[in-house]
Design goal:
The protein has 17 helices and ten strands. Helix content is 72%, strand content 6%. The protein has a two-stranded antiparallel sheet with strand order 1-2. The protein is mainly alpha-helical.
């Protein structure tokens, strides 16, 4: 692996990957959310036998299909970029990272592809029960797909279940269940998938409110709103709970990310939670991070300079970690030389030094301790946008549900407009969450194990820059096309529902 590399190559490679990931994440959350909504609505159709609910389910399935197709296209490019732009990463941990991606491709993707065909084209060809099962299995397939992707991502944040093989210079999996069922993976899965459900609910309620504003398909709109609002409240509350669980994990396993999220330069006991500016809630950050109002939370300077925990345990400074990382890298080189020269004693001595310092291996590629601090402003404000919008969604869903339950939502024109214009806010919240997760862990490709400058492929910067703009144009065209198709489908509306009831 490379000791140094052109910074502009790293920046353009990061920009290209971020571009692909963010475009991809415009489509995936909505498919996760609509999968549940259309499953619920078709279930009602099968139970009641009313064609009315069938028409509702088919309408939302149509919008699901548009997002599903574009999401696959962007997702495939994203996976290929690990091999093209981050080949050292793939070489170093491909034996582990590739496993969940392979399972996702073989199991979940084929499961989705099989049943999505039945869902779209099997209405008149299979029984109601089989079609309903296909609809649910399509959604389950999409959710399983998300599981394995998030297992892979969580492993990058918290690498477990592995052992470094100095003979192959690769990390190899030793415990599949530790990787697949990592506490961080479980929490991230529920938080991420439920955020997709929230977006789906926001989308359903917003589009349905537009029909009420236009006085079109009002029976369809009110029925969709009833389901969307209840579904949205439940999903939003789960997102809040799992978000807290993830926050505790970040505080324990990625303390620098937590410090950046809070803009916390100097740590201490009883640390307040910063809402914005000088507005702080006393001791709340300590409680959320440690479950103790007077718990100790390190700041960015503490993590760089080193500190002692309240129990007296010393935490190494960044310089000490870098020194131990360099010792690990040097020991690896010595080990390989000793193996080639068949010098058993030197080989064993080098292996011992390597194993002692391996937890800090990645720090050996860090030249400047300041690089260990992620971009604070974007992490700080993205977190507050995410949390603020999450709270807003709960209030919105509760208000919509209440007035719909009381039969007054048709009269609430202002609330209908708020619901409609909340749709883009759902996407902003989803993107903000990923910004916090990914920007907050910089400069690591794999936490503490491999920084970006050691993970990147040796490419011409001009080539990466060119493909960045090619992807930008391609993804933008796909996005515009997808929005255009969805707007056209929404404008056309569902099948005629003149005889449908509102309740």
């Amino acid at each position: 692996m490379m000791d140094s590399i052109d910074i502009s190559l790293i920046d353009w490679s990061r920009a290209q990957f971020a571009l692909t990931a963010m475009y991809h994440w415009l489509f995936v959350p909505l498919t996760l959310g609509l999968a549940m909504v259309m499953g619920i609505m078709e279930t009602v159709y099968v139970k009641t036998g009313e064609e009315y609910w069938k028409n509702i389910a088919r309408f939302w399935q149509k919008l699901f299909g548009i997002n599903f197709a574009v999401g696959i296209a962007t997702g495939l490019i994203l996976e290929f970029e690990f091999g093209t732009n981050w080949s050292n990463y793939s070489m170093f941990v491909g034996d582990i990272f590739g496993a969940p991606l392979a399972i996702e491709g073989i199991l979940a993707f084929f499961m989705e592809s099989t049943f999505v065909a039945v869902m779209f084209f099997g209405w008149k060809k299979v029984s109601k029960g089989f079609h309903l099962a296909s609809t649910w299995l399509t959604g389950i397939g999409a959710t399983i797909s998300a599981w394995w992707i998030l297992v892979a991502n969580s492993w990058m944040q918290y690498p477990v279940g592995m052992h470094f093989n100095p003979d192959t210079v690769r990390n190899e999996m030793t415990d599949f269940l530790a990787v697949a069922l990592s506490p961080m993976a479980v929490a991230k899965f529920f938080h991420t998938v439920m955020s997709g459900w929230v977006l789906g609910a926001v989308f359903v309620v917003g589009v349905s409110s537009w029909y009420l504003i236009k006085k079109r398909h009002q029976a369809f709109a009110l029925s969709s709103i009833r389901i969307g609002a209840v579904f949205g409240v439940l999903a939003s509350l789960i997102v809040a709970v799992t978000g807290h669980i993830s926050g505790v994990q970040v505080a324990q396993l990625q303390p620098m990310k937590m410090a950046a999220v809070e803009g916390l330069m100097e740590g201490g006991k009883g640390v307040p939670l910063t809402v914005a500016g000088d507005l702080k809630i006393p001791k709340l950050l300590s409680f959320l991070a440690t479950k103790d109002m007077d718990g100790y939370v390190p700041g960015m300077n503490d993590l760089i300079d080193g500190y002692r925990k309240p129990d007296g345990t010393a935490v190494l400074s960044a310089k000490e970690k870098i020194a131990r990382g360099k010792a690990a890298i040097a020991a690896l080189a010595d080990y390989r030389k000793a193996v080639a020269a068949k010098e058993t004693e030197k080989k064993n001595a080098s292996l011992k030094v390597l194993e002692e310092n391996m937890p800090y291996f990645g720090y050996g590629y860090i030249g400047d301790t300041n690089r260990l601090v992620p971009p604070v402003s974007i992490t700080f404000w993205s977190f507050r946008v995410m949390v603020g919008l999450g709270g807003f969604f709960i209030l919105l869903f509760l208000a919509v549900w209440w007035f719909r339950h009381k039969g007054k939502y048709q009269e609430m024109k202002w609330l209908q407009k708020v619901a409609l214009w909340t749709i883009p806010l759902g996407y902003i919240a989803a993107q903000s969450g990923w910004i916090v997760a990914e920007v907050g862990r910089q400069p690591w490709a794999i936490q503490d194990l491999l920084p970006l400058n050691a993970a990147i492929s040796k490419l011409q910067t001009s080539s990466v820059r060119l493909t960045f703009f090619i992807f930008l144009i391609l993804f933008t065209v796909l996005l515009v096309a997808a929005i255009g198709i969805m707007v056209k489908a929404i404008g056309k509306g569902p099948s005629p529902l003149e005889n449908a009831k509102h309740d």
